[in-house]
């Protein structure tokens, strides 16, 4: 008998008599296929990435550069309206240092074009660079974002805020702390450490502004150290454990770098530059550690540092109260806020 006829006879037909009385063979239910969440997430990420040709990348780069330059020019035009006020702010550290050593608080103009170039071109451009830094950094991120995944593109806000904020914070630290101490030391050398006749300081606006720009931009860029460490950790180039293990070499490198940046050779100004940079290094390591915890699905115990901060605040208030009540110290409106009787 052919095989097809045997198969047909083994399966009872429903329209034949007695067919329903024969037992039917039921197949076990098949299990549903397992879900593939990782593949779906990868597909979503792949869909989120924008595919661009080389010419499209060049066009995007040109567009972002134009937008960044336009923002810088607009900011420069606004700063140009306040050029005189800006020069008063920039020249104030020099005037203060000159008054301290008993000299005339004036800067010298040695060339006819020096005043115009400094006050109405270079100074507004420097101020515009700091003010427009968030806009410029946003254009940088917008150019890089099409090649990133959806999760990575969510870091646009923190990237722009942290990078621009650290750059501006570095400029403020340079203006209010580092530059003032360094300038007072340099101008006081001729009045305090020379033998015989005293040296009368005559500072040109060109040399003064060049030193000002070097210190402002140098410290502003070095304050980006936490962002650099965070992105190196994100790219898996370094790990927090590696950075902590080799922190002594990092401290040595930071000290050498601070020796090149600081305008004076004394140890005090060297520490003024080096200590904040070392703190920024460990802040960057801590940010990388939080990133590693996030990858591993763990959370940092924030209650521990908050408790320590609260204890330090209580301790500080207690010490201040004891100094005021028992030793006669008094509070003042400005730094250092507590003065001896």
Task: Tell me what you see in this structure.
The chain is mostly helical. The chain has one domain (53-315). It has helices at 3-10, 37-48, 54-80, 83-100, 114-131, 133-144, 150-153, 156-192, 205-222, 225-234, 240-245, 247-261, 267-295, 303-326; strands at residues 330-331, 338-339. The chain has a two-stranded antiparallel sheet. Strand 1 and strand 2 form a beta hairpin. The longest helix is centred in the middle third of the chain and has 37 residues, at 156-192. The chain is globular and about 100 Å long.
What is the fold's blueprint, element by element?
Blueprint: H1 3-10, H2 37-48, H3 54-80, H4 83-100, H5 114-131, H6 133-144, H7 150-153, H8 156-192, H9 205-222, H10 225-234, H11 240-245, H12 247-261, H13 267-295, H14 303-326, E1 330-331, E2 338-339
Q: Per the principal axes of the C-alpha atoms, what is the gross shape? A: globular
Task: Sketch the topology as an H/E string, one letter per element.
Answer: HHHHHHHHHHHHHHEE
Number of helices, counting only DSSP H or I runs of 4 residues or more? 14
Unreliable stretches: 6-15, 38-49
Distance between the termini: 122 Å
- Average of the residue pLDDT scores: 76
User: How many separate structural domains?
Assistant: 1
- Given the helix and strand composition, which structural class is it? mainly alpha
The number of strands is 2
Widest sheet: strand order? 1-2
What is the CA-based Rg, rounded? 34 Å
Sheet having the most strands:
2 strands, antiparallel
User: Could you estimate the helical fraction of the residues in percent?
Assistant: 55-70%
